[in-house]
TrEMBL record:
Lineage, top ranks: Eukaryota, Metazoa, Ecdysozoa, Nematoda, Chromadorea
Main location: membrane
Domain of life the protein comes from: Eukaryota
Locations listed in the record: Membrane
Protein name in UniProt: Amino acid transporter transmembrane domain-containing protein
UniProt keyword Signal, yes or no: no
Keywords associated with the record: Membrane, Transmembrane, Transmembrane helix, Transport
Amino acid transporter transmembrane domain span: 7-159
GO cellular component, one term: membrane
Transmembrane segments: 43-65, 86-105, 125-151
Amino acid sequence: MPPYHPKNFFLALGTLLFSYGGHSAFPTIQHDMKSPAEFTKSVVLAFGIMGLMYGPVCVMGYLTYHDAIRDSIIPSIQTIWIQQACNILITIHCILTLTIVLNPLNQEVEDLFNCPHHFGWQRVLIRSGIMLAVVFVAETIPSFGPLLDLFGSFLTNLMMIFND
């Protein structure tokens, strides 16, 4: 077992909380459900499925590579085609997730600039600018992953509180 460092504990906690951080979307999801009384069941089921997906990957990665694991386990995989398949699947996941995650920000900025609510050059320009800003921040800040996990672990909950 690797030596314990408080910094590593809090980074791991931040990563875990970020992966389960859908709280800001829960009120909308419950409101849109056919039967809102079933919300608790759906949340328990969703978190259970996420735990079943994340848990074995973490345990098997640790049992296989022990304390040699770093931020990403992909470079430790010896078979190149499996590495490439993982990279492709993660890329697809990130592209599809960004569409959902950035949508509230896109809509707020569009409202700020009085952009029409139909497809047009203004929306394309605003959304492209936001995407370029996201890419710029992600590429220019060193060790962006742990910073994102740290902020995501506690700022995601604030989105639920300060939502209009």
